[in-house]
Amino acid sequence: MTAFRRAPADILAELETLRAGDAPTHGGRVLSYVYDSGMPELDELAAAAARLVQPVNGLDPTTFTSVAAMESGLVGFARRVFHGEDEAGGVVVGSVTSGGTESCLLAVKSARDVWRSARAGTPRTPRLVAPVTVHAAFHKAAEYFGLALDLVPVDPDTGTLMPAAIEERLGDDVALVVMSAPSYPFASLDPVSDVAAICGARGIALHVDACIGGFALAFWPHDLPAWDLAVPGVTSLSADLHKYGYAPKGVSVLLTRGRDRQRHQYFATTGWPGYPVVNPTMAGSKPAGPLAAAWSIAEALGEAGFADLTARAAHATEALRTVVEGIEGLRVVGDPTGPLFAVATDDAVAPERRVDPHHWADAARGSGWFLQLQPGMVQADGTRLPHTTHLTVTPVTEGAVPELAAALVAAADAVRGEPPVDGGALLAGLAAQLPGGLDALAAASDGLDSDAAASLLGAFGLLGGDGAGGALPDRLAPVLALVEALPGPLTERLLVELLARVVEPRG
Ligand SMILES: *Cc1c(COP(=O)(O)O)cnc(C)c1O
Hints:
Blueprint: H1 8-20, H2 40-52, H3 65-81, E1 92-97, H4 100-117, E2 127-131, H5 137-145, E3 148-152, H6 163-167, E4 174-180, H7 192-202, E5 206-209, H8 214-217, E6 236-240, E7 252-257, H9 259-263, E8 267-269, E9 277-279, H10 289-325, E10 330-332, E11 340-345, H11 357-366, E12 372-374, E13 377-378, E14 384-385, E15 388-392, H12 397-415, H13 423-432, H14 437-443, H15 450-459, H16 477-485, H17 488-502
Parallel strand pairs: 2-3, 2-4, 4-5, 5-6
Antiparallel strand pairs: 1-7, 6-7, 8-9, 10-11, 11-15, 12-15, 13-14
């Protein structure tokens, strides 16, 4: 018998202390990352289901047949709610994955391999065409799988896309077009039907990324233009169960039209002396817990339960939109669809009446509401997307609307007229303290080694003296302003350093 070095109760007590330092996962105070149904009994069911399959290896559904049964059930549920049951364009099949990123990566890998297999031996690099608002998971997929990423500008005021802008970019090298339903940054519902008709006529694959909003849009209480597998030219669709499927993290679904298309998603080899490896997803051995949790939630809620929870999130979203639209100096970006939206400065009012969305978010954070700051950026056509603040609204938010609304109004009143942080000036000030000044900063990026990156982070006040990530500063607006002002590759390098140092062993 191996004795425990520490008592379990002691270990769990330490973990509870650590958890107390986390941002709150329940109650609707964090308006991104977490998706609270407001039903503790659903969380309990998910935890019990996950615990039942804790020892199972999801790698092999022929050995662990519970995995096959749950995956088949969950894919069937998703296929039904996303209107994939009409087999005219090929039967819709699917996989449960570890999350939205994996669903998106696999959609891109399959499309690339379908494209390649139709062009045996071509040395060309396939292209992925998508609006600039497409989730960063597709940047990652393009990088991992060797596609050129062709980002199409959207309307800088509304974040919406003209179908013709996609059509102009199409050619034989395009392996995949991606539409979002809706997009993460602005909640814009891309013109899926129009783009599907264009892609379908040319035989180009079209993925609908419904990772964030899919399981809410499917039950949305208002009519929407068709956006899912009911649209014939849509060849695949991703939707996260760990977002509006209310499951704990680690579960998403990827649906694909046509068995033959989907078989390109698999990796298979018998070319080693071990067991044949045949995987539809990236991991080998994998947990069945998130699958069991999501499956049990779908079984418990059914369509009616999802519709009810979605109605609550929709109601809260509408109420909050109305509040924000009523705040002088702020505007809701474009025409958001689903339980999320972004907020920008209303430039139509005089500068002293404007509200900077990042100062606003910082002020709201001061009263315990965590909104998400999004940087502005210049698009390929030179137009500028504004910096914004993002709100993802979950069913639990419904009960918090009065308190949240008051906090949003008070936060705006507290910062109205305060100009946005001038990233350029901030940068010049910081650079003045660095040997070599701003020029050294601009030249540095890829060539920066870990220590140089850490000392820059230290100079920016973002790294504790021990090299570990310090606590986040009270105000994030200056950090985001720096992100916007620094050259992209340098910011990326510095953020890599920050995140890597946060998890380095200490002491
Ligand atoms: C969250 C999200 C993803 C990526 O999903 P993860 O679950 O975070 O890996 C992809 N697309 C959209 C639109 C998302 O909101």
